[in-house]
Design a protein that fits this description.
With 293 residues, the chain is of the alpha/beta class. It is 27% helix and 30% strand. It is built from seven helices and 15 strands. The strands form three sheets. Strands 8, 9, 10, 11, 12, 13, 14 and 15 form an eight-stranded mixed β-sheet that branches. It has a four-stranded antiparallel β-sheet with strand order 2-3-1-4, with helices on one face. The N and C termini lie far apart (54 Å).
Length: 293
């Protein structure tokens, strides 16, 4: 399969906003790189530093209309992107060209995501092996990072987890590595389920991970994970509440800061929600399912 790369120069915090818009537009992968020669000090665990001048690069199938793609991003971004450019890539194992941009990442105290070609920085930590692929979810986006840090701080020991909209399966696999008894996953995209199964096998948890279509998702979750987008989250509120046992926890992400109050409103009939945890433009909501009356 052939691909095209869209390169967009960005300044300061624009890079994160563009990254989010490109992922929403269906980019198979997005990376950020220094556009100048600006050193960065070692970040705190889970932190995502930015350069002042950044090149945001997104990978799309070659059959996407680049002019329409750029026009759509400009409309959402609210400004023109005159210095953007498109580079066509020949059919190749494109993942290999992204290796230098995908390095081990730490989330919280002991959880790491480590690509297969890297040594684990902390061999005694909880190391989740994950390579970039076509399914969303490698831990580099704020929405996923927030969830991973929450899981590290609240290990789901002995719990039954449901990952609704699993992408690469990173959240479900992290939960299993952190002590969950079993994890059920579902996604609209069959490719996401294929990636999740492969990643579960890589991490030795395939016997405790179960894939479902959206019509056969089991209820009774001790921990509900849903890292999707605010619109679907609001529509799914009654359904996710039904799938979560009384006293069970819920973790919602993929929510822009300005959407948090509206999402809270949709979930408050069933859940006691904590204050949003924010990072950049995004936030995470966590809460507990009320006991049945």
């Amino acid at each position: 399969m052939s691909w095209q790369q869209l390169h967009i120069p960005a300044h300061g915090d624009q890079a994160r906003r563009l990254q989010s818009l490109l992922e929403t537009a269906g980019a198979a992968a997005v990376t950020l790189r220094d556009a100048g020669d600006e050193p960065l000090l070692e970040p705190a665990p889970g932190a995502m530093p930015l350069w002042q001048d950044t090149i945001v690069t997104a990978l799309f199938p070659a059959d996407r209309d680049p002019d329409a793609l750029i026009a759509g991003i400009e409309h959402q971004f609210g400004a023109s992107l005159p210095d953007s450019r498109v580079e066509m890539l020949a059919d190749q194992s494109w993942e290999r060209s992204w290796m230098d941009d995908f390095q081990p990442l730490r989330f919280g105290e002991r959880l790491w995501i480590v690509p297969s070609w890297c040594e684990a920085p902390a061999p005694d930590a909880v190391n989740l092996r994950l390579d970039p692929g076509l399914a969303f979810g490698t831990g580099t986006h704020e929405t996923t990072a927030l969830c991973l840090e929450w899981l590290d701080a609240h290990p789901p020991t002995g719990r039954q987890v449901l990952d609704y909209g699993c992408g690469s399966g990173v959240l479900a696999i992290a939960a299993l590595l952190l002590g969950a008894e079993r994890a059920h996953v579902c996604d609209l995209d069959a490719q996401a389920l294929t990636a999740t199964r492969a990643n579960a096998e890589t991490n030795g948890v395939e016997d405790r991970l179960f894939c479902h279509d959206l019509q056969s998702v089991p209820g009774g979750a001790d921990l509900m994970l849903a890292n999707i987008l605010a619109g679907p989250l609001m529509e799914l509120a009654p359904h996710l509440a039904e799938l979560t046992r009384p006293g069970g926890a819920i973790l919602l992400s993929g929510i822009l800061r300005e959407q948090a109050s509206e999402v809270c409103h949709h979930y408050q009939p069933w859940f006691e929600l904590d204050a949003p945890v924010e990072r950049g433009d995004w936030c995470l909501l966590a809460g507990i399912r009320r006991q049945a009356e």
